[in-house]
Write a structure and sequence with these properties.
This protein is α+β, with helices and mostly antiparallel strands. The protein is built from eight helices and ten strands. The strands form two sheets. Strands 1-2-4-6-7-8-10-9 form an eight-stranded mixed β-sheet, sandwiched between helices. The chain has a two-stranded antiparallel sheet with strand order 3-5. It starts with a helix and ends with a strand.
Length: 241
């Protein structure tokens, strides 16, 4: 289908170069979900860098559940001077050689038997996850509000490794989000930010997101997501062509 072709083109690779790394942004493959979950667990932990095995496992289950419901997980992966891991990638193959296995459950168990927990500094073969985000549209298809399923693309859980912040990783993730939205024929991207998260608000405003005036339907939308519309601001931006 046309949508499949457009999505394949989107997944082909979005590259950016920083002073120390080459970044590729792509959809996480099924056998990458554990590593994405470990990064996400660490990034959103209390200290922003490490997470216990129990928390990492809980986030892994959450990630799998969201993918099952239709979410797309994007990950930014970096290599240093040796970019062979990027150059040798082929369409359709598992991205990380270390995850080429027919027994994902044994792999899952081995992570938590051998390591104390998830950390942002974990080495991933020749490459490393340095940023993630979660994009979806199933939230707009809930019976708890009157928003249309094609209202927009919802963005959540965007995180970037502290060592590569302000190097274009988040911007590259947002470029990939826009590409995905275009492939779904959606015109805007929406997200929630807590009202006291000044750094995130400043970043999204710099990326042309604007605070949305919340009407009844949007208030019901936020409540359906378990958010408090009074302290979780809704931001939106038009998809960049």
């Amino acid at each position: 289908s046309r949508r499949t072709v457009m999505r394949a083109a989107f997944l082909a690779s979005l590259l950016c170069t920083t002073a120390r790394a080459v970044i590729v942004v792509r959809q996480a493959a099924p056998d990458e979900l554990l590593r994405v979950a470990r990064f996400r667990a660490a990034a959103f932990s209390s200290d922003g860098r490490t997470a216990s095995p129990a928390r990492a496992q809980a986030v892994h289950k959450l990630v799998e559940d969201r993918v099952a419901r239709g979410s797309t997980l994007l990950c930014a992966l970096a290599s240093g001077e040796d970019v062979a891991c990027l150059e040798e990638e082929t369409e359709g193959d598992g991205w990380h050689p270390g995850l080429e296995t027919s027994q994902p459950m044994k792999l899952f168990q081995s992570f938590f038997k051998s390591e104390p927990g998830a950390t942002l500094d974990e080495s991933l073969d020749d490459c490393r996850i340095v940023g993630v985000c979660d994009i979806s549209r199933h939230e707009f298809d809930l019976p708890t509000h009157a928003l249309a399923p094609d209202f927009g693309l919802y963005l959540t859980a965007l995180a970037v490794h502290p060592a590569l912040r302000r190097r274009g990783v988040a911007s590259s993730l947002l470029e990939a989000v826009d590409a995905h939205a275009r492939s779904e024929s959606l015109e805007k991207v929406l997200l929630h930010v807590e009202d006291d998260n000044a750094a995130a608000i400043a970043f999204y405003e710099a990326q042309d997101f604007v605070k949305v005036r919340v009407d009844k339907d949007l208030r019901q939308f936020g409540t359906a997501l378990g958010l408090n519309p009074d302290i979780h601001y809704l931001f939106s931006r038009e998809v960049v062509s």
